[in-house]
Amino acid sequence: MNHRRWLSCLAFALAFVPSLASGDEPSLADRVRQRVDSGLLKPLAQQEDQRFSRARPPPAERRVRILDTTPIVDAAGNTYVAFAVDVRFGTEWHENDIVGCAYPTTGKLFVKRGETYRPSAFLLGKKADPVSGVCEPRRAQS
Question: What is the distance between the alpha carbons of residues 65 and 78, in angstroms, rounded to a whole number?
Fold first, then answer.
């Protein structure tokens, strides 16, 4: 009898312990958003704080939008997620100031300039040539 009471107390107590597999782990969209924020937006803001030029002033705020709810497979078989960065000057938001993609498995970020994608370091003033095949969905085989 004492054994049953102990088991029922244990079962009751475990019912209040959160599961390790619960929603504690961030979603793919949240992880990509954090990666874009830490790998692109924060360095960009730091760079703009140190710059004195006649270029457009830095925006008052930036926000990351995740454009895909599920990863897309590129020609090389790697998965990526498309994102856009909107900027606010004053009270108006301007969408798609930066468009790019993030590779969740490697953490690499690419931004679109014209018709090509370059590593995000390009926006931070580093030399970065276009990379072919990234951020482009795999074509269906016919």
Answer: 21
List Cβ neighbours of 51 (8 Å cut-off, separation of 6 or more): none
Assess contact for 40 and 50: CB atoms under 8 A: no
CA proximity to 122, closest of 23, 43, 58 = 43
Give which of 90, 81, 34 is closest to 61, Cα–Cα: 90
Helix (H) or strand (E) segment spanning residue 7 = helix 2-14
Pairing of strands 79-89, 72-73: antiparallel
Q: Closest by alpha carbon to 33, among 75, 62, 76?
A: 62
Cα–Cα distance measured from residue 40 to residue 100, given in angstroms and rounded to the nearest whole number: 11
Q: Which amino acid is at 45?
A: A
> What is the pTM for the complete model shown?
0.77
The pLDDT tens digits for 62-96 are: 999 999 889 999 989 999 999 999 999 999 999 99
Express each pLDDT in 4-31 by its tens digit. Answer: 554 444 444 444 444 444 557 889 999 9
Length of the chain: 142
